[in-house]
Amino acid sequence: MKFFIDSANLDEIKDLVKKGIVDGVTTNPSLILKEKERTGKSFEEIVSLIASVVEGPISVEVNSLEYEGMIEEAKNLASISKNIVVKIPMTENGLKAVKTLKNIGIKTNVTLVFTPVQAVLAAKSGATYVSPFIGRIDDISDEGIKIIEKIMKIFKNYNFETKVIVASVRNPIHILNALEMGADIATIPYKVFTQLIKHPLTDLGIKRFLEDYEKSKN
Ligand code: E4P
User: Fold this and answer.
1) The whole model's pTM is what?
2) Residue range 57-65: average pLDDT?
3) What's the average model confidence in pLDDT over 174-189?
4) What is the CA radius of gyration of the chain?
5) Residue 218 has what pLDDT?
6) Cα–Cα nearest to 166, from 184, 154, 193
7) Does the CB atom of residue 29 touch ligand 1 within 6 A?
């Protein structure tokens, strides 16, 4: 399973690139706004800076809800860097845009997907990636991860090529479940990456080994 970082924060992205554990990036308008407020940089600057440090796919969302607007924005975004993937919301206009963009060679990530059938529609229209949001389903007292299991099974049954990005990840258990289900990608917030790295027994083990090393020197 590939690990993407769900962030527009350049420091977080650079840190994970240095650790070699990140294969791509996903952003959304809220994450871009946070980075704009943190750094004062413009939307274009933020996207270009991310593209300057990440070789893998970088998803950036369109803001238009109209078909023509989506296509125009998608072309502009794709011209920023060759690894930009255009995030398109799961709507009727969105599906139309995905089909057109596939035909002109622009990769897409259909976002705000909450049911397996929405994922199938995205795949049929030619999406490169589909992003089911599991945490937001958990937030309304259902089990978001269940849709990943269903989508993986359905995509296998019908040989859909669209890759599944487990999105709206909130904790390490989401990642473990996604790995067990054979999801293609998980897009993970920085905080969850740090939780994945840490284990109290690792810390305790390091402390004890250091203490014993100090004693063994005398
Ligand atoms: C995915 O591409 C989205 O950016 C993201 O995972 C949304 O997560 P949230 O529900 O924590 O905002």
Assistant:
1) 0.96
2) 98
3) 98
4) 19
5) 72
6) 184
7) no
Is 80 exceeded by the pLDDT of residue 164? Answer: yes
Closest ligand 1 atom, residue 187 Cα: 6
Domain that holds residue 36: 2-216
Q: What is the mean pLDDT of the chain?
A: 97
167 lines ligand 1 (CB under 6 A): yes
Nearest CA to ligand 1 atom 6: 168
* Catalytic residue numbers, as ranges: 87
Q: Is 136 near ligand 1, meaning CB less than 6 Å away?
A: yes
- Expressed in angstroms and rounded, the spacing between residue 38 Cα and the centre of ligand 1 is 19
Q: Which amino acid is at 61?
A: E
Mean pLDDT, range 46-65, rounded to an integer: 97
Q: Is the CB–ligand 1 distance for residue 109 below 6 Å? A: no
What band does 35 get if pLDDT is binned at 50, 70 and 90? Answer: very high
Average pLDDT (167-195) is 98
d(Cα 67, Cα 59) in Å, to the nearest integer? Answer: 19
Whether the CB-CB separation of 178 and 186 falls below 8 Å is answered with yes
Q: How many structural domains comprise the chain?
A: 1
Within 10 A of 49 (CB to CB), how many other CB atoms are there? 17
For residue 150, what is the domain's CATH number?
Answer: 3.20.20.70
